């Protein structure tokens, strides 16, 4: 066999990507729809405190600006449509009752945006909190159905609004379950969660698995009531 007849060497395998190698998101603008509510205000405060540019959105621009002024840290306020247009990433933190109506009205403004849904469809009765059945399967899947031109993910469901807004709390000791259809998008959301000291974003599957993540909040509410706590979640062995 001549040298030219020698079999070609097998191509070298590319090294496996480190699952914790995440993109730099420090320059992205984050909008928070429902930013005047407890969860939205808390997320806006923590992200701005970590150095992220944040815009609070509300149905009324003056209400959003008042909340932004109260939080400080360079946070801006705007009506929901302007907040969506000016942001690279948009966190949906509106009440479940207004979820569909809000997103329907913002479909064009959210086109092309990375949307992070953190809404938990819950009901309450004398026995406590319980998960509601959603026709699309979950709030995140409803968002994906209503926003066909957006890149919808789900995250930030299990955070205590009390801890998020408490200025004396330096770190939020919790993992954030991140779900989505495109890994590049979930990587961005994981990186955003990781900007907040003590927090870690963990990939947790596709949007079809969002229901149980949203529903778990009902269990955490029961935990918190029983133990007078602000419980979060940690995933072990990763």
UniProtKB/TrEMBL annotation:
Alphabetical GO biological process terms: copper ion import; NADPH regeneration
A matching Pfam family: F420_oxidored
Keyword Oxidoreductase included in the entry's annotation: yes
The keyword Oxidoreductase is assigned to this record: yes
Gene3D superfamilies, per the entry: NAD(P)-binding Rossmann-like Domain
Alphabetized NCBIfam families for the sequence: npdG
Name used for this protein in its record: NADPH-dependent F420 reductase
Species annotation: Streptomyces mesophilus
